[in-house]
Structure formats: structure tokens, C-alpha cells
Write a structure and sequence with these properties.
elongated; 85 residues; 0% strand; 4 helices
Length: 85
Amino acid sequence: MRTNCEYNINGLRGIIPQAMKITPICTIRRYHVRCMRFMDAYRQGLNTQLAHYVTEKYKSHRRLFDLQIDAGLEEQEMLNKRCRM
């Protein structure tokens, strides 16, 4: 796709429909769900590293699991303490 892109809006308008035709719908749905998980993590105030950890550990199509967030926060605190030593 990068080789075919002209890096302007008109080029994108031409290439996006072609890319959508060749991309399997299951791939599009998978990325959609992953983006929704990250958005949920950011809404709950998590930083980028912690959001990545939580979204990889627990996969729910509804929301992030609160206990996983708590576990992730504890792990992040432990890592921060090790770095300070």
C-alpha cells in the first residue's frame, strides 16, 4: 500500500477502496475490537504501557476487566520501584 500511495487526500480516496476490497473482514473486525479496548483503557486513565499490558492480558468484547487493571497498576508500580533503585 505504501508503494501505491501518493501521500495526499486524493491519493487516499483512490487507494482506500482498493485496500478495503483485498482486506478480509475478519482482519478489519479484529483491529476494530483492539482499538476499542485501547480506547476503553485510555478512558480509564491508563498510560500507553499499561494500556498495552491490560489489553493483551484480558480480551473482552465489552470492556476491560477491573481486576486486570488493578493487577497491571500493581505491576507498573513494582517496575517503577525497581527502576528507582
